[in-house]
Amino acid sequence: MTRVSTMRVLLVEDDDGDAILVEALFEDAGLEVELVRVRTIDEAVHALDVDCVLLDLGLPDAVGLDALNHLLEAGAPAVVVLTGLSGADVGLQAVAAGAQDYLVKGEADAELLGRAVRYAIQRRRSEATERELYRSQVQAVENARLERALLPTPVVVDARLEVGVGYRAGREGVLGGDFYDVVERPDGTVLALVGDVCGHGADAAALGATLRTAWRTLVLADTEVGAILPLLERVLYSERWAPEIFTTVSQLAVAPDRVHADLYVAGHPLPLLLGRPSHVLPTQARGRALGVPVPGEWEPQRLELGDSWRVLMYTDGLIEATVGGGRERLGKGGLIEVVDAAREGRASSLVDEVIGQVCLRHGGPLTDDAAAVVIGWDGGA
């Protein structure tokens, strides 16, 4: 058992004689104790920044388990109750109600008091560790569930089409609102989506998962491509937790012939057409972000891609990354440099290589989460 060097103990006791006895017992036990005494529960709830509370169950303002319940509701640490009542029934009831141990006045000596307090502190700390571990496990399960909803496996039948996806959580390792998806329709049209819910944390992740699921549902239901974003915005309106929440998305619809595509942009960074060098895809049809209450629709930009091409879609976590820990951001120019270097290196996963290299330039994990999708065609070879 690890001994506590200096224990901070709060004694809640209205009887001066009993208080003097407790102090003497601590001295006889040879323990280093910082002892604070109060006489009532009302005083005690304002002095709980201690390692352990010795609680008399017969106080002027609370008697029996009511006293214990008041302290526990106030966030008390380890509690050892002191009872002058005959028998151990009340003490056992107190332990069942949340106390770590109990002592009967007149029966506790220095050794027993010291051992009860030390054990109570250790048990309380062990319980706190177990609760934190449980919360972490629950959080991990929830993150995994959200990750499956935010970051699904692409549904593409055409094996000749290159499809790569990737995601990296932000610095705290908590999922944000970035999401992606790629789905091929029965007629051969392939639709790809990258989106970003404003904000961070569980609410943004949950909304992103909802929007991503709604998007796939609309695609699988053969919704006309031009109607998908307006319908997705209706889902956003009904599911967002505050009226100022918006979402940016980029949607690419690759035709069955694979030589042209329609690009829809809703307030999102423009995709890159990879080449020598890579460059930002041109568009005169940028639309507003979903959920922003200003006029405007989302018109497609027809892209003539040719027989061989690769397109990178991404969220702003990649271009807003600062460089080398400074204030300068990577930007689209810096991302293009990273992409072209990754292409020359012939990494097995271009998306993972790009995200990894952005993290290296940033100097560690990204502040914001980041998602990316690569779609490519090499003439059907």
Automatic annotation (TrEMBL):
In terms of InterPro entries, this protein maps to:
Bact_Sigma-Reg, CheY-like_superfamily, PPM-type-like_dom_sf, PPM-type_phosphatase-like_dom, Sig_transdc_resp-reg_receiver
Q: Which GO BP annotation is one of this protein's?
A: phosphorelay signal transduction system
Keyword annotations of the record: Hydrolase, Phosphoprotein
- Occurrences of domain Response regulatory (ranges): 8-120
Q: Which residues carry this modification: 4-aspartylphosphate?
A: 56
Give the Pfam families listed for this entry.
Response_reg, SpoIIE
Q: Could you state a single Gene Ontology molecular function term?
A: phosphatase activity
PANTHER family, A to Z? STAGE II SPORULATION PROTEIN E (PTHR43156:SF2), STAGE II SPORULATION PROTEIN E-RELATED (PTHR43156)
Q: What is this protein called?
A: SpoIIE family protein phosphatase
Species name? Cellulomonas fimi
